[in-house]
Amino acid sequence: MPQSNHLSFVETDRLRIGFETSGPPEAPAVILLHGWPDDVRTWDSFLRPLRAAGYRVIRPYLRGYGPTCFLSGSTPRSGQLAALGSDLMAFADALGLERYGVIGHDWGARAAYIAASQTPARITHCIALSVGWGTNTPDQTLSLPQARNYWYHWFLATSRGEAELRNERRALTRFMWNTWSPSWKFADSEFANTAASFDNPDWADICLHSYRHRWGFADGDPAYAALEARLQETPRIMVPTLVLHGTDDGANDPSTSEDKQQHFGNAYRRVLIAGAGHFPQREKPDEVIEEVLAWLARPA
Asked: Is the residue at 29 inside a domain?
């Protein structure tokens, strides 16, 4: 009988990662990575379709979220993107996954791209939601509308933004949900069930470091210096990649994922999800799942 969905833990060199897993261990594995401000509940609508299609579904909590914790108090609470990508690769190693598909949203999409760029032989399919590849570097060109969308990046670089994040994290993150997906009407319980993950004691430190490091306002963890250097040139991804982006995304405008074909050396497809904001997997699950299943069914 397939395993039921339950919380498990695995240790990497730095983390004790909490994750939910469902499906038989011998089935093809698909890792689903959430973003910010979100958690594994963002993939609840995916569980049954992926299981029915014969996949083992694995949904980890990112560093600083829910039950995931650091093994040592002295480890820097880095939120840099190289750390997130490294966490994914280490997580797959810890689970003994030789090959796996990956679906990522927001921070999770950036981690998925990084892992796909560094370990292409390990990843069968890469599916990224709401983020384009080649949008990680501090010197990237931003339109004025997109700079406006990123107001919270600059806000979190200030002491006032830090205080807001630490002391009013639910109000701030709910504001993000409301403004990033203006036509999405979600239940209070949907937000509350996810926001509980933001009570992790490392959450605020990691969020602050993530956005400050992204624009050169904070130093990175030296442990990731070599990977950071490799990522500076936006390495070409040789894994079949699907990008899904909501037309009404108020965080990353759809234009930010346009014209990225040159960064991919294998099959590549980009689909706009009409009427969806920043969380298409929550807002338009049926349409997104249809695209996801079709892409995963492609020969690896």
From this structure: yes
